[in-house]
Amino acid sequence: MPELLRILLVGDVVGEPGLQRLAEELPRLTQQYATDFVIVNGENVYDGKGIRHSDAETIFRAGANVITSGNHIWEKWQSKDVLANNRNVLRPLNYPRGNVGLGFVTNGLPTGHSITVINLQGRTFLPSIDCPFHAADWVLEKLRHTTGAVIVDFHAEATAEKMALAAYLDGRVSAVVGTHTHVQTNDARILPNGTAFLTDVGMTGAYDSVIGMKKEVAIKRFMLQTPHKFEMATGDTRLAAVYLEIDPITMHAVNIEQSLTPPLVRERRVT
Ligand SMILES: [Fe+2]
Ligand SMILES: [Fe+2]
Question: Are 115 and 104 in contact, with CB atoms under 8 Å apart?
């Protein structure tokens, strides 16, 4: 078997607490896994929504090669400038034509192989943008490299939509990894035709929270059914990631491991 490609994908980095944990943890993780390539979802890095140049710089300095995103990338005007000026910062490919930024990118590795990252977004409980299935077909048709890896960050709410896209692309891409829900699912596996799949990689941010935001505000929003300004939570930060090993000749996955650093405490707390 040829030398495997080692790829790490980190889930939604939320605000300054998430960014700090990423800056501390990612250099250690990339060493531990001896990664060839690192992808980080940065849709929530600027105070919960969007990304600034300084945020992108911090993420790249921590070890990322490509930054992916999702629905929240559009909610700060600064994000558009980042998307316009950096081919390695992606937004979902299947937003209507005319929007700024790229939805996929191919980078060459020193080994001569190439890694393509494709960012797609689901349409269930999210804006009704173009079809992610057809967008995937379109981009796979365009790809020219025949060795390396093709990694899909599928930013979607519904587990069924994520499983359906992974099944649709099974054997045609190296991995489909879900983002957006901020909760890591326990289903990392390799599908029958060689595509690694995880429904959601989870969140890099504060876990004493409701998906990264202060609990009190989230509770109010659900109970009162009116808008209340989100505030970033700060306690108990963790990094959520998935580690992939890809055979560059077949471009299929041979290993997938999900991780949360540090892991959640599952035993009863003694006070
Ligand atoms: Fe997110
Ligand atoms: Fe999202």
Answer: no
The answer to pTM > 0.90 is: yes
Å from CA of 91 to ligand 1 middle: 12
Ligand 1 ion: Cβ-proximal residues, 5 Å cutoff = 12, 43-44
Active site residue 72: yes
State the distance from the centre of ligand 2 to the C-alpha of 113, rounded, in angstroms.
30
Q: Counting Cβ atoms within 10 Å, is residue 235 exposed (0-12), middle (13-18) or buried (19+)?
A: exposed
- Please give the distance, rounded to the nearest whole angstrom, from the Cα atom of residue 249 to the centre of ligand 1: 33
As a whole number of angstroms, the distance between CA 158 and CA 185 comes to: 12
3-state secondary structure string across the chain: CCCCEEEEEECCECHHHHHHHHHHHHHHHHHHHCCCEEEEECCCCCCCCCCCHHHHHHHHHHCCCEEECCHHHHHCHHHHHHHHHCCCEECCCCCCCCCCCECEEEEECCCCCEEEEEEEECCCCCCCCCCHHHHHHHHHHHCCCCCEEEEEEEECCCHHHHHHHHHHHECCECEEEEECCCCCCCCCEECCCCCEEECCCCCEEECCCECCECHHHHHHHHHHCCCCCCCECCCCEEEEEEEEEEECCCCEEEEEEEEEECCCCCCCCCC
- Structural domain boundaries in the chain: 5-261
Give pLDDT tens digits for 29-69: 999 999 999 999 999 999 999 999 999 999 999 999 999 99
pLDDT band for 138, please (50, 70, 90 cuts): very high
CATH of 5-261 given 3.30.1490.150, 3.40.50.280, 3.60.21.10, 2.40.10.120:
3.60.21.10
